[in-house]
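[Meeting: bench + compute handoff]

Bench side (C.D.) handed over the final construct sequence. Compute side (W.E.) agreed to return the predicted structure before the next meeting so the bench team could plan truncations. Sequence as handed over:
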Amino acid sequence: MLKIGVAAMVLVVILALSRSVSWARLMTVIAAAHPGLLMLATLSTLCCTAIKGVRFWVLLRYHGRPMLSDVVQATFAGIGLNAVLVANAGEVARVTLLARSTRLPAMAIIGTLAVDKVAEIGAFLCVILLTFGLLPQQALAFPKSTALIGLTLACVAGVALLLTSRVVERVRASVVAARGQLRSKAFGAAFLLALSSWGGQVITYAVAALAVNVLVPLAATVAALVLVNLGGVIRSTPGNVGVFQLMYALGVASFGVGRTEAIAVAILIQAIQLLSAVGAGALCVPWMVGRSAPGS
């Protein structure tokens, strides 16, 4: 019921937003996208995913000697499934595939996944602080309406997480069980890899905007990245379609980016992410299933 309520609220906001968008102008902006820059944004996205796989491998070596290729391909497979399924089902698939191919205990992989998320969130917070700290204060002034909408949606996501107490308890238990990993040198390396991965996402967002000749300041790009990821906490739609565009538009609205142009850029960014994730996942899932099959 909670997800239905969240999805309904998001749908209402998306419909209200769509009424102020010039769809003819939006299609014109997308049609004029530079192919070379779109390919560069796609390459940046794939590199970010590969870095996530390497990061998980670095942490997973605490429990054994898994093959790097197995962990990276399982990461691509999991992210590809997340792109078309709801509730982060791809993470479940990643754990299952890795448990079969590496012969490591599933609980060890789940604990490592929790530690990986800690590194990712910590790096994300650092990117926000470092980037915003280097920008002039006037660039960070949000209109009250944008701040209120963003805060409301963030609170909804936070409340939803708190209500799923069993999930929170499992994650906390996994982190406690993996506290040795948190103190290891591998966690420091994972943190640095997470920083580079978030930096790669900023590059993807910026290059996609350049591809359609839309000027999006760095502060706006980071703000959009923050809100998009907050909106992705609860996957109320497959691939977070609609929510992604809403959050991106809210993030850049305070920096002089037109709503139609913002939606066009968001559509391109998500198309790049979804197509690269689904394409790479489609290649990796069959290989991983065969690799983890009994007797293989």
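W.E. noted at the follow-up: The CA atoms of residues 27 and 135 lie 32 Å apart. C.D. will use this when planning the next construct.
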